[in-house]
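Continuing from the previous page...

OK, I double-checked the sequence for NB-ARC domain-containing protein against my notes and this is the correct one:
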Amino acid sequence: MEAYTAVISLLQTLDQPYISELFHDHSTEMLDSLRATAECFQNALENTSNEKIKSLEEDIRVVVSEAEDVVEMMISEIIEGKSWTFLKSSKDVLKKMDKTKKQVMEILELTADSLIGASSMSDPMLSDQLEDDIVQGLDGDLEIIDKRLTGPTLDLDIVTISGMGGIGKTTLAKKAYDHLSIRYHFDIFVWVTISQEFRYRNVLLEALHCISKHRVIENTKDYVNMNDSELADLVQKSLKGPRYLFVVDDIWSRDVWDSISQIFPNCNNRSRVLLTTRETEVAMYANTSIPHKMNLLDLDNSWKLLRDKVFGLEHDHPAELEEIGKTIAENVKDFP
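Thanks. Re-ran it with the corrected sequence; updated structure tokens here:
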């Protein structure tokens, strides 16, 4: 409880309306990093009952309290017009926060499977996942995408999924987006859908709507009165600092990628863009590495998917229908 109280106190300090004005010429990225880490601690303390997480509560309380002390001292010095002498202290506390966050994430990632099945999980973002964990035939694809999204590369990486329409690219991206290990690896989550009727402004507004769920966007005018360039600049600035996952779903052309790629800042913090497209050429254009190509389900998985959709996950099927069911699944599997 003391750890949770300390986290909430730090978040309240960071969310004071005067903070952005005071630190306008100082390290706002540091404050963004502190806020993202504190929110990670808040989620872990609210949504898990893991004993190993409980064993870290004192570490979380100590490092969060130190962080709030440093922020308050920095505020005091800025107000008094003194030179900023707490630079080293701020770097030290950031390192401690990051170390503790890594310990929390490692525990959560190791126990992700058990947590997914826990009936006590209350995170609304994961409700769909609890009901329908992994679509038949996509579990192997999900593991590959998860590893690419959480890989060690510090630079911004573009992870691409390609394949024919209706094969499950969006479903796979959604499963990765909602996967518990991914939820605790990234700080900000953004999902935009492109499709053939591309409207740059709508994409920017959709992105800002997602970002606003994770952090306060300061100093903004009414979006209606902002032009596209101002909106794009706001998206980019809002993504700087925290580690973000930005999903670009169903992109059709290289021109569209050129239009939106400018809004992704490279903060060297393992942020990722996950892109889905039916055009392999577009996937290769966004990232020259080989895209993850979705393939048709094999007969066994096609039959399992059809069976579960018709009879439900927990219901037996009449044995006499299995042969004709597999025939239907075979025909569906081969349908272009």
